[in-house]
Amino acid sequence: MEAVLIIILRQVKKMNKRKDFSAMMHLNQRFSYVFLCLLMINFTFICCVTSCKSVNNSGFTRTTSSIRLSDIESQLSVNPVNALNLIYIYKEVYSETENKNQEDWYQLSLYELEATGNLLNLQQKAIEEGRWEAAESFGRSIASLGIVTEHTGKEADFILAGARQKLEDGNNPGAFLAAVRSHEIKPMDKESALLFLESAVHARQRRASAFFLTAALTAGEKNIPDYLYEYATGHDTVTDMIKGVATVIVDRGFRVERGMGMVDRIGGSAFFIDSSGLLITNYHVIESEVDPKHQGYSRLYIRMGDSTSPRIPARVIGYDKALDLAVIKTEIETEYVFSIVDRVIPRVGDTVLAIGSPLGLEKTVTSGIVSALGRRIQQIGGVIQIDAAINSGNSGGPIVDNEGRLVGVAFAGISQYQGLNFAIPAETLAAALPRMLNGGKAERPWLGLALYETYYGAEIIYTFPGTPADKQLISDGSFIRSINGRNITALQGGLIPAMQAAVFYCGPNELVALETADSGGTVKKYIMMTVMRPDLPLLDAAKIDRREKVAAPLFGMILTQLPSTLFSSNFRVNKVVLGSVADSAGISQDDPITISRLRIFEDEGYALLDISIKKRRMGYLETNMQLPAYLDSPDTL
Is 0.85 surpassed by the pTM of this model? Predict the structure, then answer.
């Protein structure tokens, strides 16, 4: 290879002396082709040597198939979920292989039986030991395999048993949410409904009390004490609710600007969800408390009154960066507690109230209406758009309706546009809270797919490298038919959030069944193990994958390669995702483009793509463009 390169370089030197630029250009193209071919030959040779065979210490050669089988064997008793995941990867990778080793496939079937049996034993052991969350998790993995056991259909019982355990441990918010989930799957019995009603009244959570009162009456309970009935059917006023809202202060010391020391403080709002001192706020308010990249001082406080009131130290319990939510705790008892069990889904036009501390003005109440639902500005799910006045300092405050029910959590406003504000739905908070209460960073499941909602369904436009979907060789261009055996349907614009919700309760390291269909109607079923969702899903992909590939999830352009040179990459736009960056820039199908460079700004969370394009709509007039995109796309699963 070195000899070939020397010959080519000598030819270039001669042409340069003759000023033969046209021949140089032609040779440049030939050089690119020869160079790439040589690289491919070397790469193929290395792969054949290292992948097809490996030599152990005894001098015997091993195939990649036997290595994979050894990896599966090592996981059988330690982690049967991962063993099954590796088994299904093996099946997918070698399913089309000619001359299959029948002995290896027979061994694989034995491993599958053993791993499945170990998984069933793990669930049984978790039930016997009263580890209800683990039993529920194992049950979801078992269900994805399509296996029916004696515990199939008992998910509601596991959740209810877990709710009782949380009640005994003093985790009222987690207990009430688990009891509601259980009731939604299977109505509670009279004894359980009355138990949770008494606990909700004792915890001074009126809306939770009302929910469990209805559950008790539905179960046929007639002997409900008067004091429980009266409290559950009562009504909270806005004056009452204000007592459950606090001002959040994050003191970050001083920062230096233009040689001057400036006080560095972050202000926000929070509201109590338990009389023990648990509060809900936004992640971005307390970010410096938990972000390892933050270099410097950071102290968290709350204040219950005006600026003359004392600061009360607080600490972060758990947080969910993808949803911009956090749970903090302080050692005081509150006069009012907000209930989070209603899961109110408001309608457009409903009146809402926002309570918080805008610009540090404590206990401020503003009103407005729900302007829209399902806005896609977060990585997971949709948010509520409201026109109630929200300013800096409102972040983390409660949004309630006229009946005193929690509708959402204020989290963002656009300062340049009055009346354009947003809230995280109470339903999302209720789903996210249990994992945040476990402490630390809440981990969300991740399959590694970028999706595009079309008339025909959710199309897979990109598979992230190294993810479960990538290891299963899921191809771009196919459509998701079902998740864990359920066909996911939703109104226009809501299909991807609905699919995200279908796996939201799954944790990392659980099995999920995914069924896809390609354009020809061929149906395939995959079973894969979820992993932890990254903070910026597109960051690693943009760093390691080809620019033309990541153009799909980042900018909404699906590209086809055209003949290129050493210094330029030429493509044709095969498809444009509606509503994407490319669509907004006026790029259309069949436009030829040349990619100059892709730049990643990790700290700022965005990427820039420099291209040269000849738009058909403009008579193929060549234009240079720069396309920006965030690294936290909401259209991922």
Answer: no
User: What token pair was written down for 5?
Assistant: 């390169």
pLDDT tens string 558-575 = 998 887 666 667 888 899
Q: Would residue 264 show up in a list of annotated catalytic residues for this protein? A: no
Distance of CA 222 to the CA centre of its chain: 44
Token pair of 285 as six digits: 């308010």
In the set 395, 478, 569, 580, the catalytic residue is: 395
Per the residue annotation, which of 236, 274, 324, 591 is the catalytic one? Answer: 324
Which residue in the list 32, 71, 264, 284 is annotated as catalytic?
A: 284
At 148, give phi and psi (nearest 5°): -100, 125
H/E segment holding residue 543: helix 537-544
240 an active-site residue? no
How far is residue 406's CA from residue 465's CA, in Å, rounded to a whole number? Answer: 40
3-state class (DSSP) for residue 497: helix
pLDDT one-digit tens code per residue, 189-226: 999 999 999 999 999 898 899 999 999 999 888 888 98
Question: Would you call 597 helix, strand, or coil by DSSP?
Answer: strand
CB contact at 8 A, 278 and 253: no
DSSP for 116-136, written as a single string: HHHHHHHHHHHHHTT-HHHHH
Active site residue 284: yes
**Inter-residue contact 170 to 276 (CB < 8 Å):** yes
Residue whose C-alpha is closest to residue 255's, from 246, 247, 266: 266
